Amino acid sequence: MSEITDFDALRGAMAENAEQPEGPARNARAEELLAAAEKLNIPLAVIEALGHQLKVYNYSSEKGKMFVPFARLLRMWDERPEDFDEYETHSLHWVFKWVSSGMLDQPHIPLASIEKWLGEMEHRYRLAGYSERAVRSAEHSVAAHVGDVARAERAYAAWLAADRDAMADCHACELHGQGWWQAELGRDSEALELWRPVLQGEYACAHEPHTALASSLVPLLRLGRQDEARANHLRGFRLVRAMESMRGAYAEHVEFCALTGNEARGLELLAERPAYFTDDGHPQSKLEFMSVVALLMDRLTALGLGERQVPGPAGREWTARELAAHARAEALALAARFDERNGTAYVSERARARMAQEPLVERLPLGVRSVRPVPPPAPPVVAAPVAGRPDLPALLAEARRLSGTLRPGAVEAWAAAARAAEGVELDPRDRAEMADHEAMALGPEGAALFERAAGLYAEAGDPGEALAARTRAAYVRALAGEVDEAVAAVAGPYEEILALRAAGGTGIRQTASVLMGRARILMRRAHEEPGSDAVRAEAEAAVREVLALVDGRTGEDVRLAARAAEAQAMLAEPAGLAGDLKTAAELFARGAAAFVAAGLPWFAVEYEARLASLAHHLGDTAEAERALRAALEHGGAELEAPGRAQLHLQLAEVAGGRDDAVEAAEHALEAAHWADEAGEGATLGAWARQQLGGFLLRQGRWAEAAEVLESALPDLTAETHGDGAVVQTQWWLGDCLSELGEHRAAAERRLQAAEIARHWPEQHDHATLAHLAGESLGQAGLAAEADQAYARAGALWRELGNVHGLVRSLRARAWLALRAQDGLAEARALMAEAVRECEAARETAPDEESRDQLVAELGHTHGQFGDLLARSVAEGLEEEAVLAVLEEALSQVVRSAEVFASLGADALHSRTGAELAAGRLEADLGRSADAVARARGVLAAYEGHGDDENGDEETGDSEDVRARRAEAEQLLRLLADRPDGGSGPTPLR
């Protein structure tokens, strides 16, 4: 670190330190700089160093340190005010506000001292000629802190009534403070209306909208405005994440997680900021943080997760239950210190109320990656005991009711009956049904249990049901991949059931069960051998046999109605295998409708989902969307999380395809939520988050999109999702970061994506990403790196034969070169190369449209060449050299206008823009008459154009026309205001 030997070096070092992240390291450097300033023996240097130290303390967790440098500054002001320049005089009075609010946050400072300080502030502001606005704002803070609502309301009214002046907080901070008070009084709508201009970006500062976004979360939840709360959390947390001084706002985001069922994300937030548990420099924000830590830990404990390991103060491991007790004790101890200082119980009452909050939303999906804590399983629910034992007859009756009507929960009901029957002697029928339904829950592993059930049914005297159970055993073997074995295994039960039915030994329901099982197995084989017409025909015949059996015989028997509906839907499968997608779609629709008509809508979901897929392939997006919505509706509460996630993700794709990014984002959000619930967050959930980020980006919701995309990236892999998805996510994220002004981070994302795309056979994406990386690197001030990226892009554009990309990369490099010392020659050479590339490509253009596009590119290149030359004129150059550069610039801009003129009316705006640029250069060169003629020529070019509200198809919309006219009229006024009326020479710029 170089030694500071003069005032300029000190100022440079302070400016550099001000750009460093908040925290102890920056504070320590400020202390070193103060020591260096004292050695310079310049009073103003010490004043500025003290002001810098005070500022970095205020924007850190060591706010309590700012009182010492301020006291020294105030003493220096009282002794020698002439040592302070205008800026430092203003700053001294400005930080009175920081000190007054900072005293409130330190419970060791007596309330009497704070009131005395408030009077001192009022006195000094009056002497300096400032209004009472800032003073009354500070008084309101004191009154609100101690719970004196009457005084706070009086001060609030006086604050708003006083004139805004140079000491008033910025609009953003004032509106935040005013909204905070309204929210404290329970006036959530009024608070949000006050915050609206800040939340919408009309006003901003170093800490806004950061704090307004955080403060808005609970009021929005209380008002039921959950979508806005979610958006403000994603936007706001991104802003406060890296700012050490914003522990209070950070706490509000943790609180939001605790109140919305996002406990896992709350834990992630705590893990990111371990120092917040122990930093003591700002007791007020520590009280706020520990209060919400207790709230979150209590929530986890209530969910049965009290013994879960959680992040906490360093030095030991913590369970949620232990941290809850620790955080509550810390918060209440801090609150007690404030109350002892204030002489009230107000701070403790507020802390207790905050820790006692109940969730406002059971679960608010956020779209970001987070695994919900899973509580231990609840003990099984059984019927009320009779004489100390479960009511087994009631459980059996309920299980039979559910299974007999195909209602959801039948398998679980039979499992409950089986648990209750442990140690009880049952008849074979009861044991058969229990084994049968236990096997259903096992899926492909249930074959042996189905066979056992078959034996019990036979023992119970029901041979038809025994054959049905054997058929189910054969079918699950097919599900396990043993299709040929299943075909062989079902042959016997099929022949036997037909004979039994003919002899009157079983009913239609059991017969239909065996026939449907056989049809399922044969259809499974048809899918394995899609090219075999014979196999497909056999499967179709088996399905039609089911229909022939039950058609017209279902009556009130819902199970037979289900067989008929399934058979109708199954007929779609051979049609699909044969390539008749339209017929397959119609049959799936018919089967789904039959399930709905039978009062079994949840069974329709599978076929509506398959119908949607077919409709999508057929290009019928309206039918696809209808089917997907029907599937969600019919699935209802019975639809399992993976299926719900898939349906929402498909609806997101459909809505995105019709450019409804808002609805598409809603479905992608739901898809991400249900994928997480299903335990598929790293696979299906990552897809959903990637899509959600893209749809948020399309809406211009950059911060939210960035949070979601960053959350998706860790789970997106080339192996699972394809490298195209990874590249697209990095690309989108780079776009978001660029819009947010995070240019270095945007460049990193774009370069990472470019590195993957580098290996693709088609190199257009690689070239585009390299070009975008160049833009970001240039905006980040990394000129050399930006030039390398543009050069890489240019080489790729050249290989691809993309002249437009090549020319734009050359122009970008020219502008970068101009920034460098003695870089004008290189900049000229690059612009000249861009011109040559355009001219050469124009001559070999394959068609008129391509030629016109290249001509337009040439016009823009000449225009930029002229602009670059004009901007290269530096102060101190000889007049002759300046004139020569401006002449060259004018020739390029005139050439630009001529090139655009060759394109006729289609390039009118571009031509007039070049004409006005030429006019301004002519004015600089003292050719006022030529400049006037150009401006008048532009006005004449727009006579009769763009006067109506709808604009003009030929010349662009009326707004563009008005803008050009305004530029021309401004140039004419500038020339007319000169002493010679615009006819004499113009002083050089």
Automatic annotation (TrEMBL):
Gene3D superfamilies documented for this protein: Tetratricopeptide repeat domain
Disordered as annotated region, ranges: 943-963
Acidic residues biased stretches: 949-958
Highest taxon of the lineage: Bacteria
Family matches, as SUPFAM superfamilies: TPR-like
Protein's UniProt name: Tetratricopeptide repeat protein
Native source species: Streptomyces lomondensis
